[in-house]
């Protein structure tokens, strides 16, 4: 199955800075990747997704980059806000059953 | 849209007792997933259903765990007997095949087994 892992368990940033959360995957057959945000006491919530035929996708203040050559994806958050503090998961899949990484805790300091 | 609904939100029980967690998926979704989340192991898929039929229960830790989906709008996860190591947050999620792999999660049930 998919092996999705994260480079850093915790990321601390100052409010207003840009944040970059990284994720590595092992299954080159994965054709779909998702980033989830999990706030304290809540379930994971969809942020943004990307298909393997793309290398970049942008949303509101978030951008996901996919590098299939090195099997790496990243989530970039522009102008990070205190409300962005959460655990961020990447998930990879392609058969409706995504595999989740361990998560990175993003801490935003005011 | 009410989203995925789970109950109870919190459950505290004693070792050896039976625990039943409940989930109502988003109307129209045909996949339902049960996950367990702990600090040590992260988010683990326990079992999932498609059109009310269990497809893969290989993540269910032991025979003490069982899950049912009697209809499209209701599922239960039962632990009998419960043990302290079952303490975790249990999430239910649903999605609609043919769209994306995006899953919609419920708020979770925090289970504490004393």
Features of the shown structure:
heterodimer; A: 110 residues; mainly beta; 6-stranded mixed beta sheet; 5-stranded antiparallel beta sheet; 0% helix; 55% strand; globular; B: 114 residues; 7-stranded mixed beta sheet; 4-stranded antiparallel beta sheet; 11 strands; 54% strand
Describe the structure.
- The complex is a heterodimer of chains A (110) and B (114).
- Chain A is an all-beta fold.
- In chain A, strands 2, 4, 5, 9, 10 and 11 form a 6-stranded mixed β-sheet that branches.
- Chain A contains no helices and 11 strands.
- Helices cover 0% and strands 55% of the residues of chain A.
- Chain B is an all-beta fold.
- Helix content of chain B is 0%, strand content 54%.
- Chain B contains no helices and 11 strands.
- Chain B has strands spanning 5-7, 10-13, 19-24, 31-38, 42-50, 53-56, 65-71, 74-79, 88-95, 104-105, 109-113.
- In chain B, the strands form 2 sheets. In chain B, strands 2, 4, 5, 6, 9, 10 and 11 form a 7-stranded mixed β-sheet that branches. In chain B, strands 1-3-8-7 form a 4-stranded antiparallel β-sheet, with no helix packed on it.
- The mean pLDDT of chain B is 93.
- Chain A binds chain B through residues 32, 34, 41-46, 49, 89, 91, 93-103, and chain B through 4, 31, 42-43, 45, 48, 56, 91, 93, 95, 97, 100-108.
Write the layout of secondary structure elements.
The complex is a heterodimer of chains A (110) and B (114).
Chain A: E1 4-6, E2 10-14, E3 19-25, E4 32-38, E5 45-51, E6 56-58, E7 62-67, E8 72-77, E9 86-93, E10 99-100, E11 104-109
Chain B: E1 5-7, E2 10-13, E3 19-24, E4 31-38, E5 42-50, E6 53-56, E7 65-71, E8 74-79, E9 88-95, E10 104-105, E11 109-113
């Amino acid at each position: 199955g998919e092996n999705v892992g994260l480079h850093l368990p915790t990321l601390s940033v100052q409010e207003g800075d840009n944040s970059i959360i990284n994720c590595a995957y092992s299954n080159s057959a994965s054709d779909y990747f998702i980033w989830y945000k999990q706030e304290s006491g809540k379930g994971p919530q969809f942020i943004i997704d990307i298909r393997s035929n793309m290398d970049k996708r942008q949303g509101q203040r978030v951008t996901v980059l996919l590098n299939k050559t090195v099997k790496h994806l990243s989530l970039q958050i522009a102008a990070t806000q205190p409300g962005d503090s959460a655990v961020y998961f990447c998930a990879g899949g392609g058969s409706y059953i995504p595999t989740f990484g361990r998560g990175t805790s993003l801490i935003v300091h005011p | 849209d009410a989203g995925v609904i789970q109950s109870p939100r919190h459950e505290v029980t004693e070792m050896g007792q039976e625990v039943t967690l409940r989930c109502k998926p988003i109307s129209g979704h045909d996949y339902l997933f049960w996950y367990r989340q702990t600090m040590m192991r992260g988010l683990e898929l326990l079992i999932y259903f498609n059109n009310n039929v269990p497809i893969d229960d290989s993540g269910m830790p032991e025979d003490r765990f069982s899950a049912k989906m009697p209809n499209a709008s209701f599922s239960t996860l039962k632990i009998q007997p419960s043990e302290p190591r079952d303490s975790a947050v249990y999430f239910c999620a649903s999605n609609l095949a043919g769209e994306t792999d995006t899953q919609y999660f419920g708020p979770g049930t925090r289970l504490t087994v004393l």
